[in-house]
Amino acid sequence: MGFQSFSLQARDGRVALPRAATASRAGRMRTTALRAAASCAVISLSALTMGCAQSAEGIADGSSGPVTASPDLGRAVGDPQVGTASYYSRRFTGRRMASGGRFDPASDTIAHRTLPFGTIVRVTNLQNGLSVTGTVQDRGPWSRGRIVDLSPRIAQNLDMIRSGVAQVEVVPVELAEAAE
């Protein structure tokens, strides 16, 4: 008996790979697919968290000018909060908010972690005294150290577009009924 060579061709003419070769190839393909999915998840999460604050280049001038501080913006019905505010990137236009509606950058949308949807709040920029009212329609912000996210229109009225963030006081002026 002589030396027998290894043949990849089966009796019926089909080519068959050794079992070890197919198993390692499938394992590599699965590993590659998992790495690609994990990379996409990390990139998406990074883009989502960076989209909450935007520089002045991305915001066009709106038609409404800054609103001056005024005592008739409503009396407080809740405890004031002081902290940092940021504003939504225009990339969120049309995306669903936690309340179910779609985000409009020209709206008076405010994101707050705990106030009920529909609550009207007065936001005052502590650096220049400008105040604007808006409605809580979303949850957030999810960036550490921020207390509210504002629509670009509100941010423009508070004159915080250039800086991207501002120290603000948030005061509920009309609490909405909490949904059960």
UniProtKB/TrEMBL annotation:
| EC numbers on record | 4.2.2.-
Q: Which stretches make up the RlpA-like protein double-psi beta-barrel domain?
A: 82-170
What GO molecular function annotations does the UniProt record carry, in alphabetical order? lytic endotransglycosylase activity
Q: Does the keyword DNA repair apply?
A: no
Q: Does the keyword Lyase apply?
A: yes
The superkingdom of the source organism is: Bacteria
GO biological process terms on file: cell wall organization; peptidoglycan metabolic process
Please name the Pfam families in this protein's record.
DPBB_1
Spans traversing the lipid bilayer: none
Instruction: Quote the SUPFAM superfamilies the UniProt record gives.
Output: Barwin-like endoglucanases
Q: Which UniProt keywords apply?
A: Cell wall biogenesis/degradation, Lyase
Which protein family is named in the record?
Belongs to the RlpA family.
What the protein does comes down to: Lytic transglycosylase with a strong preference for naked glycan strands that lack stem peptides.
Name of the protein in its database record: Endolytic peptidoglycan transglycosylase RlpA
Record the organism.
Neoroseomonas lacus
